Amino acid sequence: MPADLAVIGLGHLGLPLAQAAVAAGIDTIGYDTDPRPVTDLTAGHAPLDGPLTAADIRRMLSGGFRPTTAPDALGRVRTAVICAPAPLGADGTPDLTAIGDAAAALAARLRPHTTVLLESPVAPGTTEGFLRGLLEDGSGLRAGRDFHLAYSPGRLDPGNRTHGLANTPKVIGGLTPACTEAAAAFYGRLTDKVVRARGPREAETVKLLETNFRHVNIALVNEMAVLCHDLGVDLWDVIRCAETKPFGFQAFRPGPGVGGHGVALDPGYLPGAGRTPGHPLRMVGLAREINSRMPRYVIQRCATLLNEHGKSARGARVLLLGVTYKPDLADRQDSPATEIACRLSDLGAAVSYHDPYIHDWRVRDRPVPRADSLYEAAADADLTLLLQHHRTYDLQGLAVKAQLLLDTRGATPAGAAYRL
After folding, report:
1. Of 143, 239, 248, 279, which is least surrounded by CB within 10 A?
2. Once rounded to an integer, what is the mean pLDDT over residues 103-126?
3. pLDDT digit string, tens, across residues 394-417
């Protein structure tokens, strides 16, 4: 059956978009080349590490949502939104393989007057220089003439109970003014406000700026955490006071590292960036370097704490609390917990974990023991390391039970635990 919308890529971007579309009464199919999420969704199950619950999926199915692995379904839609992943590869550039596969599947079935939108996090120029060519070569149609093409950066914040798709302005940039208006007509059905960029490159660069803004500011406060520890200053109190300033300051908080799907991207690593003299965004490269050092700093603090209490890291029982990248979610995308577990194991520590959202965790293809009883595990561990503050954790109670508690999130009351 024909549908109004095809969401291509049923991950952290695609599923919430499909959910919003179904809720708005848009006839929606979800396409993915991986049969596993499609099978789970069809059965009413939420994919592991996904942003939606099983109840959310069941409501979508009852609203007419149809997950599929059949590419022929893409030839019967008015709008197609590509939400395929684009993680950074080993060379520091986005891996466009999944986007290319999605474009190829769509291009072979693309019809005139279809609106094609890209939401995946990509470098400026990708929509025009990569996606456009694949769609035109595979379909024989011309973007801007035969079909509409535009970019809109994903702005979803998983777990955010205040800002969702409906009340977060949607930035769009089309290949032509008509493309922009076609995109605006679609997104206007899902969100309260549409913001028109001058073109797809500007819209792509919005995502670049927003993501790098986050990483640079986290890097600053991570460096402040190290400095304040050396000075004997309570950084968390400093932040509490600083954020009372009503202008010129936005509070960021340190942590054991930076995870999530929004990866800091330095245009110096991108094709064609050589046109810019020198290193175009040195601040971003430095921020990535600082943030990538935080897991090592956490290990250093762990070893020092154990030594100060007459224990060695070798043979120490270390309990990791919260291994997801964000509180109250099951998403482990680039969570610093993995590197921290690896480094502790390399020091000879016996690592276990507790996370109410993760029931099976493997590091280096080996299962990490999961604590069933949180308080008993904390009392038994030589060191308990809070990496993520899930709301279900009673940190005051844990501080009493744990032999040693190192809080990397500043979530415990002052004086109740050692803090980053």
Report:
1. 248
2. 95
3. 999 999 999 999 999 999 988 888
Dig out the tokens for 160 from the structure.
């955010």
Nearest to 123 by CA among 96, 157, 143, 104: 96
| Cβ count within 10 A of residue 293 | 16
- Which of 225, 215, 253, 249 has its CA nearest to residue 411? 253
Q: Is the pLDDT of residue 273 over 50?
A: no
Q: What is the pLDDT of residues 45-100, one digit of tens each?
A: 988 777 788 999 999 999 999 999 999 999 989 999 999 998 877 776 788 999 99
pLDDT, tens digit (0-9, with 9 covering 90-100), for 207-216: 989 999 999 9
Among candidates 41, 65, 67, which has minimal Cα distance to 54? 41
Report which secondary-structure segment, H or E, holds 215. Answer: helix 200-231
Bridge partners for 419 per DSSP: 407
CB 190 within 8 A of CB 170: yes
Query: What is the H or E stretch that residue 174 is in?
Result: strand 170-174
CA-closest candidate to residue 267, choices 129, 9, 93, 390: 93
237: number of CA atoms within 13 Å, CB side?
8
Instruction: Give SS3 for 2.
Output: coil
Q: Determine contact, residues 6/80, Cβ cutoff 8 Å.
A: yes
Residue 70: exposed, middle, or buried by beta-carbon count in 10 A (0-12, 13-18, 19+)?
exposed
